[in-house]
Amino acid sequence: MPGFRRWGKSKFQKNPESSFKLLAAVLVITLYLIIKEFSHPTVHVARPPAIGAHIQFADWKNGADRADREKAEKVRNAMKYTFEKYRENAWGKDDILPVSGGHSSTRNGWGAFIVDAATTMALMGLWDELAQAVEHIVMIDFTRSDALVDPFETTIRYLGSMVSLVDLYDAGVIPENVITSEARDMILEQAVTLANCLGPAYDTPTGMPWPRVDLSKSKGVGDPPSVYKADPKKIKYDHPAVGPARAGSSILENRALTRLTGNPIYTKNSTLSWAPLVWSKWTPAFHGLVDAPIDIVTGAPVGRQRHWDAGHDSYYEYLVKMTLLAPQSDPYLDSYKTTFINATKSLRKYLGSRSAPPPPPGYAMQHLFIGRSNDDWYENRQSHLACFAPGTILLASKFYNLPEFRTYALALLEGCHHTYTSTPSKIGPESWSWIPKFGFEDPVYLPTTTREKAERKASGFWSADPGYKGRPEYVESLFYAYRITGETRFREWAWEAFEAIEKHCKAPYGYAQLSDVYRVNKAEWPSDGGGRWKDVQESFWAAETLKYLWLTFADVDVANLDRWVFTTEAHPLRMMR
Ligand SMILES: *[C@@H]1O[C@H](CO)[C@@H](O)[C@H](O)[C@H]1NC(C)=O
Ligand SMILES: *[C@@H]1O[C@H](CO)[C@@H](O)[C@H](O)[C@H]1NC(C)=O
User: Fold this and answer.
1) Which atom of ligand 2 is nearest to the CA of 288?
2) In this structure, are strands 431-433 and 462-465 parallel, antiparallel, or unpaired?
3) pLDDT tens digits for 411-435?
4) Which residues bind Ca(2+) (predicted)?
5) For residue 263, which atom of ligand 1 is closest to its CA?
6) Claim to verify: residue 274 and residue 297 sit in the same structural domain
7) In the chain, which end has fewer C-beta atoms inside a 10 angstrom radius, N or C?
8) In total, how many domains does the chain have?
């Protein structure tokens, strides 16, 4: 390992004044919500869409606001194929194995694919498919599972989709002959049952969630193979510790559930869950960026990782999306907004870096990527997951009227685009590294193998994990970029990504993951194709990747960003502003 550049020593000083503020905040929220919900019990009737916000581009030319029917139809066909293969071979299981036609059940066996993909079917108007999905959804027994339940994954994939289906029905997107009002009420009941089953997750002194729930005992539990064991020399703890995404990615789903049921408990618990992040009593090294992981019993950071990548990402996403979703009268929207703005400024200052061009005659361009800070070191590595950031920052730039965020977001999106266009498959890798041009003289990662050096020479970055997991984040940001800037190049980029995925991932029973986006020629693999594909298709492929691709080619009034807020799993919720 090379030498490291040191950050200034970070401090974790307790600030007693802000513990008081946190307590006061929590009390005020609780009281406010109780009074509000009981004085105006909410919404069992359909309401016309709220006024919303001005997010989408307004000055469309040459019909660019209308659907590109041909391309939208191709993406819709990919969804139909995905559904059909699953229905024939794995109905009721969590996920199909797209190469072998087998199945897996790692999401408690409740039919994760059916639930997670249902909102995609709803937006695409796949009514037969949606009707079959709803028949399954209303029959799931969420009170039972042999395996421990992961409250984070369960909230974003199952709960989020069910709440969104109710919103889509209430807004008139789903017609009555597909979901009856009785079925709509049953879906909401299922959401309530599931949310109540997840309740024990929040039963901690801080309100931050347990990593798992044991349904048979109605009890929160730790997660033995915790990632935080990674560095036992540095991290000593007796309690489970979680990253900000676990604590901070349940408020959208639960705020909507409170609106639909009139019960304030969901908003209360999910607000308490991220309160120790938003109103932290620890002084962070970088304004707005959480030091993590965090002990769920004491609320203290037990590590010094700060980034917008896996495990942290959707906390930052939900800060801005909560300010869009909630009624303006909700308390604390200003705190969320300021925290988000601070976090984005810190991202720009401490985490983002441009790739240095390799020595001549190599590739000459520089690209902006998002690294990580870990303890005193700068990790010059980004994963595909962090490509959600351009879309989320663009959303904030429009909503908060911050043009400099827009410029920054579009530069980050160009970086993600560059990872896609640089590989032979035209699909970007799962993670990559680069040599920063400015500011970080001794980065953690250097290219060592012949392959890494060659990749760097050709494109200015080299892959760390060269696989593709069917992930949505890049096309998700393209969707936001198209809807917010109105620039047609983003539709073109999305189409290039879709064509590449269609060409390389389509498998006998669905869409497979790729082992190596740099080696996709069949000739480079054994004659049975073994190894080229991974026999995995996660539910986010249908819930997110196909949805965002399709929406990019749909009429811009479908799931209009002026009225809808997408959860981190791409389930649209109605704004309350
Ligand atoms: C709310 O949190 C409490 C712990 O503070 C927990 O006992 C309860 O089950 C939770 N309820 C819901 C619906 O989340
Ligand atoms: C945001 O950053 C400023 C300094 O740039 C700091 O004074 C302020 O307290 C921060 N606010 C939040 C909510 O992090």
Assistant:
1) 14
2) antiparallel
3) 999 999 999 999 999 999 999 999 9
4) 568
5) 13
6) no
7) N
8) 2
